[in-house]
Specification:
Blueprint: E1 2-5, E2 18-25, E3 37-41, E4 44-50, E5 58-65, E6 70-76, E7 88-94, H1 104-107, H2 109-112, E8 114-115, H3 117-123, E9 130-133, E10 138-143, E11 149-154, H4 163-175, E12 184-190, E13 193-199, H5 206-210, E14 217-218, E15 224-225, H6 227-236, H7 254-267, H8 278-329
Parallel strand pairs: 8-12
Antiparallel strand pairs: 1-6, 2-5, 2-7, 3-4, 3-6, 9-10, 10-11, 11-13, 12-13, 14-15
Helix pairs in contact: 7-8
């Protein structure tokens, strides 16, 4: 598999531009055979005998220079029974920043904000408050000397994420800045200890917002619930109208809406094994669209038939009036 890309004139890349390339890999379905491949960027090997993990994203990144054509090649190994797969690719252009308006910590975060493990213990009060846990490890609440709240994500010894993935994530976060994304403040690479120090989101994480934590639906003056639970209860009662947008309620196929609603609820299950794969989601949406298209086609045919019948009725009425007129004249 070869993926080619190049800059165009609208990007104003200048002379000898620098790009930050990020590749994402994961298996979205359970496979019984081996998928293994080498990854090359501009014919330079980035990974060897690589196999994506099921429902676990692996990030590979590289700095790419020059304004010419570039390529990413995924080459199956001789042991592989399946073709290579990639789930996403991002390319960022690195632009020079005016030093007079940029703090040195922002310009080179991985070089200037390196914490020792001893500092992390002080910042987190000896890792006293756990605020989350993921594949990487535990996340602890902390506070810097200037009063800024931080989230310290420590890699556990049992984590499946190695040094390469850790550094790729750190580099990725260090270069990406957006008002809707948490900022990377620093990192720790002290002997066996690996950690990322991020801006702390005191309103909860993305998953919590999506499943309605904190509660966002008021079902009475004193009771609230989250969207997923509310929708599940309504559907269990056979009430599809309550969960359907009023703007489309009268203009969509009820079976299509049911299929989408049930699929959406499955996507909110807490256990990954209970949630549908991306392939199942695409298939379910496709089936729903087929139902909707078929229903709209039938409704359109019905409207045309009714219009024709109305037109024929007018013609019969006109002919009847004409015959009555002729009879009266006789």
């Amino acid at each position: 598999m070869d993926i080619s890309w190049s800059s165009d004139s609208s990007m104003s890349v200048g002379v000898d531009p620098t790009f930050f390339l990020v590749l994402y890999f994961a298996e979205v379905e359970v496979i019984q055979e081996l998928r293994q491949f080498d990854v090359f960027v501009d014919k330079s090997q980035l990974a060897s005998a690589f196999s994506p993990k099921f429902l676990m994203s692996t990030i590979l990144s590289r700095i790419v220079q020059d304004s010419g054509d570039h390529s990413v090649s995924l080459v199956a190994t001789s042991n592989s029974a399946l073709q290579p797969v990639i789930i996403a690719m991002e390319i960022y252009m690195v632009r020079p920043v005016n030093e007079s308006t940029t703090d040195s910590l922002d310009a080179n975060p991985l070089e200037n904000r390196r914490f020792s493990y001893k500092e992390l213990k002080r910042i987190t009060n000896n890792f006293n408050t756990t605020i989350g846990r993921g594949r990487f490890g535990f996340v602890y609440a902390g506070c810097l000397e200037n009063g800024v709240s931080v989230a310290v994500k420590m890699r556990s010894e049992t984590s499946l994420q190695g040094n390469t993935q850790f550094l790729a994530e750190a580099q990725h976060l260090a270069r990406i800045h957006h008002r809707n994304l948490v900022s990377l403040i620093g990192y720790c690479k002290d002997k066996k200890h690996l950690s990322l120090v991020n801006e702390y989101m005191d309103v909860g994480n993305l998953q919590g917002c999506l499943i309605g934590q904190p509660a966002i639906i008021a079902i009475s003056a004193t009771e609230k619930t989250n969207v997923a639970l509310w929708a599940r209860n309504k559907l269990s009662e056979g009430d599809i109208d309550s969960v359907t947008n009023p703007a489309i309620r009268e203009d969509c196929d009820i079976n299509s809406v049911w299929k989408v609603a049930e699929l959406a609820l499955r996507c909110t299950e807490r256990r990954a094994l209970d949630r549908p794969t991306m392939g199942e989601v695409v298939e379910g949406i496709g089936e729903s669209l087929k139902l909707e298209i078929s229903s709209r086609s039938m409704r359109s045919s019905s409207i045309r038939t009714d219009s024709s019948a109305f037109a024929d009725g007018d013609s019969v009425g006109a002919l009847e009036a004409e015959l009555i007129g002729e009879t009266s004249a006789r």
